[in-house]
Design brief:
about 5% strand; Cytochrome Bc1 Complex, Chain D, domain 2; about 280 residues; two-stranded antiparallel sheet
Length: about 280
């Protein structure tokens, strides 16, 4: 290839690359309204974004993997925690952790109720953006003594719950307990986003170690307010009607409303709920 041919090749390659870049840019902008649910950007969402910036949340947290990486990515936090939890947490983060034990440094921002509500609306809108699976590691935490937003004491590795014994694929396909473990780890939002299976590891939700025994004790207690008659029915009730029975003073509810999402009766099939109950019933 002589100099003239090399020059023409370089010019041609540059033009082709520029056209490809322009085309991809135009196509991206064409899809932005649909991917970002632009029709759902309300006044509250816009104000919530302003509250996010006003309080410098990005200095510690990340959205879509972009931010300070000091605290967890909050891209899907609204789906993982729910509005009730976020409202209570933002009102006073210190109620959800012991600073000496968890080493949490989340400051109390002294936001107004309107600012909190709009910030939650913004985070809810963010959680519904089609982010194509990015970041690849959302806020899913298990084990260890972990604060409600996913942090653990400095230098302490996360303790991973012991998995069930490996079963042959044919057995897994039929065994309700194995199927229930799959639901526990992969439902949307995954139970592991808020619950640990390690004793004493309280996260956004209580540890589920020994939950079957506690369920039986709760149903038989005088203060029980739900409709279940046995442990299995109580476990199911806790999944599909989490506010049927709440414990006053616990950090997992406010004003009788559980922070646990009340959508699992719609998000899961009756078979999946039964399998999840069968799995949780093994933790005695």
């Amino acid at each position: 290839m002589n100099k003239r041919q090399a020059r023409l090749f370089a010019i041609g390659s540059t033009v082709v690359a520029a056209l490809a870049f322009l085309g991809l840019t135009i196509d991206s902008h064409r899809q932005f309204p649909k991917l970002t649910n632009a029709q759902n950007i309300t006044v509250a969402v816009t104000h919530g974004k302003d509250v996010w910036h006003k309080n410098n949340c990005i200095n510690c947290h990340t959205l879509f993997g972009e931010g300070a990486y000091y605290a967890p990515d909050l891209t899907k936090i609204a789906q993982h925690r729910g509005a009730a939890y976020l409202h209570a947490y933002l009102k006073d983060p210190s109620k959800f952790y012991d600073e000496q034990r968890h080493r949490r440094l989340m400051p109390k921002q002294d936001m107004t109720d309107v600012e909190i509500a709009d910030l939650v609306s913004f985070l809810d809108w963010v959680s519904k953006v089609d982010n194509q699976g990015w970041p690849p590691r959302p806020i899913l935490v298990t084990g260890a003594v972990i604060g409600p937003m996913g942090a653990r004491p400095a230098g302490q590795a996360a303790a991973v719950p012991a998995p069930l014994p490996r079963l042959a694929p044919a057995v897994v396909d039929k065994d309700p307990i194995a199927l229930g473990e799959a639901v526990f780890r992969t439902s949307a939002p995954a139970c592991t986003a808020c619950h640990s299976l390690v004793p004493g590891a309280q996260m956004a939700g209580p540890s589920l170690a020994g939950v079957a025994t506690r369920a039986q004790q709760t149903v038989g207690s005088a203060g029980y307010k739900g409709q279940a008659k046995d442990a299995a029915a109580y476990l199911r009730e806790s999944i599909v009607q989490p506010s049927a029975h709440t414990v006053a003073g616990a950090m997992y509810s406010a004003s009788g409303v559980s922070f646990m999402p009340a959508t699992y009766d719609k998000d899961l099939t009756p078979d999946q709920i039964a399998q999840l109950v069968a799995y949780l019933a093994t933790f005695k």
